[in-house]
Amino acid sequence: MIIGSSDARYFDDYVAAWALLYRGLNCKDIDIEAMQQVLDEICAVVHGNFRYLGWDEERERYLLYPRRKDRFNVVERE
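Now predict its structure.
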């Protein structure tokens, strides 16, 4: 899973977002529902532009949450 903001944020925004992320996730049970709940909290408290991309094996592409009309191309580099 890739987590970040869809725009430039201040350092303080990232600090708050990561604090919520680590508080909200149990490393043993990280699943899509847990990630969506934590991301909803981050968007409510910090800023609404935080998103995550998660790989969907069945569709063989990244899925964006929360969904928006914007499309992002993920390029993997070695």
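DSSP finds two helices and three strands in the chain.
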